Amino acid sequence: MSTLDFGIVIVYILAMVIVGLIMQKRASAGIDSYFLGGRKIPWWVLGSSGMASNLDISGTMINTAFIFALGACGLFIEIRGGVTLIMAFLMVFQGKWNRRAEVMTLAEWMHFRFGKDKQGDVARLIAAISILVVTIAMITYFAIGSGKFVAEFLSIPEFWGLEPQFWAATLMIVLAMIYTVASGLYGVVWTDVFQGIIIFGTIIYICVLATGYSLPETFNVSMPLREGGFMAVETTRDAWTSMIPSWTLDLDERSAYSIYNLFGIAILFYLLKVTIEGSGGTSQYMIQRFFAARSDREAGLLSLLWTVLLGFRWPFIMAIAILGISLGNIEDPEAVLPRVINELVPMGAKGLLVAGLMAAGMSTFDSTVNAGAAYWVKDIYQAYLNPKASARQLMIHGRLASVAIVVIGLGCTLLINNINEIWGWITSSLGAGLLIPTLARWYWWRMNGYGFAAGTVAGMVAAVLQRIFLPDIPEYYAFSITTVSSLVGMVIGTLVSAPTDKKVLTEFYSRTRPFGFWKPVRETISQTIMAKINSENRRDIISTFMAVPWQLVLFLTGMAIMTQRWDQFVWLFAILVALSIGLYFKWYRHLSTKVEMTS
Hints:
mainly alpha; Sodium/glucose cotransporter; two-stranded antiparallel ribbon; 2 strands
């Protein structure tokens, strides 16, 4: 980069640090302020921050790689996680269900669901440990992508036998950690809003730049090989821009992407996974924003804004892929993003784009670290090691936990070869080990804390063993191994132990009001109240069936604009309008402002 470009990046970095330090005083009021912003942060700030947190460098690079290599249908692979389809479930019902617990972390939520006796303690401790493990894996994933990206632009030498990508990732992480450790969620969300403005500037610039390029009728793309290296593959404009996925892909078996040859089955598998995941809720930085929301209505509104803003990500990714094809000489699909910026973006604009993408990377990183540290402070240190800890001790541990999570995650980058390797394992194996217990806790009254703990441990152990002994199996096999192990562990753990106390279950159901198998509890509630709960549940179920395709069609519509496939745009836009009208009448008009946070 030029001196001007470096200057722009430096100004951006200093601005982020200054904003974070300004927020330090507000965050230091206590751990509620540090981890939840005192539950006083406006919904539009939480939603904007959520969008920025989802738009990370690693995800942008791997999503661009799939679009570049496979065309528009590459989006359907990222239903596994990159499309963030879980937002449809959070928007309609999971966001408000979680908010109603009035807790700080998912692990603390376990006491709300299973009680504060031994079974609740076991569930809380296992939840905290498992989420810390996932958090470290996510830090590793972010570091790999950020390192690959930043190393393309900064002349960082190899040092102590470690690659430039490692030191580039270290630089990014240290900078983000300064304001994250200092200012907690206040600093995270407000720097995210500022970074979101830069990100949108980046999106607009790249999309406008891509409109000056048109795809030829036939051209070559590139795919990675299983044994290393890359292979060129010829495709056509019509095939590459088609938004309708094929049942099979028929890719060369030597290609690393040939694991997606049974494309229809893969898509159905990803949809099943997302349905389980969405119906069970989420954890880490995503759920933290719902715990921080002030009402059911604001939980819904922040989700809606979050999803709409994410809709701009996919035209951006499509634009990068189009520009990558115009270069004509890219071998590694994961290198498309930095190559496009290096070779097609002029001086000055390059600095702004690099700053914008660094913003995307740091906004995801800071949210993950802040949320992960909460589990150590609230659910391990304060709950079991030092219940009488002072506010100052808790703040110190919050900051030390943030640093420790980062150091361990950064060290794990030395064991991973590429972004898709770690992302595939997180989404289809490690994360899958949590899905079944996370799902059943909402819908099955008989499930208890021991069942949650046993299912989670079984799933996590199966994920680690799969990674060690069967690292190259297709993702749906890895998913099956971990989910079946988790299901067996959960059922056995639940049935060999006593049910959760009836008073705890009644309190949980009365406040949360989920649908599912709650007959023994529902019988204790008046018919008048149950009629209202049933009406709400029916609306939510119907709305979810509209919200999931609405989100997918929203993303595809933006991609159709970038590819100038107006034939596809017309019918996508018509479907989008119809689903939006349905959601307005079935969901939006019923957003409630009655239940406000009191703590």
